[in-house]
Amino acid sequence: MSLSKSRATIGLAMIVRDEALIIERCLGSVLHLIDTWTIIDTGSQDNTIALIEETLAGIPGRVISKPWRDFSSNRNELLKVARPTADYLLLLDADMTVQVNEPEPFTQLTAPAYDILVEAGIRYRMPYLISSQVDCQYLGRTHEHLAIANNIMPTPLDSIAIHHIGDGGSKANKFQRDLNFLEADALSNPTDTRTMFYLAQTRENLGDRPGAIAAYRRRIELGGWEEEVFWSMYRSACILESSGDWPAAAQMFITAWEYRPNRLEPILQLARGYRESGAMMTALMWIERGRQIDFPSNDRLFVETWIYLWGFDLESAACMWWNGDHEGATVIWSRLLERTDLTESARAVVTSNLALSN
């Protein structure tokens, strides 16, 4: 496909199975963006295929039925059949929707791959828009990643964003399935940093705290990408705290922040932890330090956006209340309720606090 046209053609590329409850939401968000579509179905037992064909009628494309193998194998198969259909491939899962931030989001595409901002409670970037000409392949049987030839780094693109809602139809036994893949991969390649990182996360999600701590520690030892090392330190601290060892957790939160001082997540946890232990002045000290740090706009991995937007206001109000400044806390809580980006759970907490304060 030629890139000399005023706008590159966009081909939707997906893998689905049993997504009838949500597939129309995803497809509806891209109908006005795509020129073609290629979707591999790996064994749906519901009417996913019929809904796809109905929703995308009038746009050239096809559903291809293939057996499930693993994530990288099936995604590489998808790349192979989708490449001839468009200049660029938009890679989505069924539990995602696309938000358009500019009237013509794809008018200046020239890079081999683009990093798209993903909002999923936390914020991260992924190469979800790639040139059909770029030499790349997926690696890893689960938590797969796109490896681009010659170590080409994706270019950030902010004309669209992706909301990852996380309610896909193939989540049953996900963590145990991932664990089996990752432990096998770790045995065959014990120094692979990505495998160790997601092995730690999967063990944490399964409630295996000692196993998660051990894998996070190993990931820290392996070094490499600083954001992954930071997150391994941060999650280790969270696990230590949930296990009841606040002194060790506090030290690890400090270690994580010192390692990557542009990230606020450890600072907020330090403020909250010291407040809950009764050390109000120490908590307020950490809050004041956190307010001096800007949003880490260049970080790609797991940025907890709520912390940067209003997390310190929420924590500051709690400290004020328990320090006797009820009026100051009430002012902040009232201001928080005016925010449109406050989560439902935080809104419920703030509303309850205000009711109790009256």
UniProtKB/TrEMBL annotation:
Residues 14-104 form the Glycosyltransferase 2-like domain. InterPro entries: Glyco_trans_2-like (IPR001173), Nucleotide-diphossugar_trans (IPR029044), TPR-like_helical_dom_sf (IPR011990). This is Unannotated protein.
